[in-house]
């Protein structure tokens, strides 16, 4: 999958979880600083992402922005 294919799905998942509009979720968006996501929010987003894309995201991954997450998914789906 490409970043262009992954991004809309990621945007929708994050927007649903955090009660935001998908257009508020951009590649440069930081989960904590821009979306006010707490650790539980991030945990729930990661669970949905893992189910949607059939990937495993370890808690030690340094995923702080939407771009980090999209790139991670793209790399894992190519592996």
TrEMBL record:
| Transmembrane region(s) | none
Q: Where is the protein localized?
A: Cytoplasm
**Carrier domain: residues covered:** 4-77
A Gene Ontology MF term for this entry? acyl binding
Per the record, residues carrying O-(pantetheine 4'-phosphoryl)serine are 39
Q: Name one GO biological process term.
A: lipid A biosynthetic process
GO cellular component assignments = cytosol; membrane
UniProt keyword Lipid biosynthesis, yes or no:
yes
Give the pathway annotation: Lipid metabolism; fatty acid biosynthesis
Q: In what way is this protein post-translationally modified?
A: 4'-phosphopantetheine is transferred from CoA to a specific serine of apo-ACP by AcpS. This modification is essential for activity because fatty acids are bound in thioester linkage to the sulfhydryl of the prosthetic group.
Keywords of the record? Cytoplasm, Fatty acid biosynthesis, Fatty acid metabolism, Lipid biosynthesis, Lipid metabolism, Phosphopantetheine, Phosphoprotein
- InterPro entries the UniProt entry points to: ACP, ACP-like_sf, PP-bd_ACP
Could you confirm whether the keyword Lipid metabolism appears in this record? yes
Protein origin, superkingdom: Bacteria
The family annotation for this protein states:
Belongs to the acyl carrier protein (ACP) family.
HAMAP family linked to this entry: Acyl_carrier
> What's this chain's function?
Carrier of the growing fatty acid chain in fatty acid biosynthesis.
Recorded protein name is: Acyl carrier protein
Q: Which organism is it from?
A: Lacticaseibacillus paracasei (Lactobacillus paracasei)
Where is the organism placed in the taxonomic lineage, from the top?
Answer: Bacteria, Bacillati, Bacillota, Bacilli, Lactobacillales
From the UniProt record, report the name of the gene that encodes this protein: acpP
């Amino acid at each position: 999958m490409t970043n262009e294919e992954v991004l809309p799905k990621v945007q929708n998942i994050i927007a649903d979880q955090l009660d935001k509009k998908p257009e508020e979720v951009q590649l440069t968006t930081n989960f904590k600083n821009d979306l006010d996501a707490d650790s539980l929010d991030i945990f729930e987003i990661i669970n949905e992402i893992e189910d949607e894309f059939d990937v495993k995201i370890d808690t030690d991954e340094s995923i702080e922005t939407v771009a980090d997450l999209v790139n991670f998914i793209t790399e894992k789906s190519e592996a």
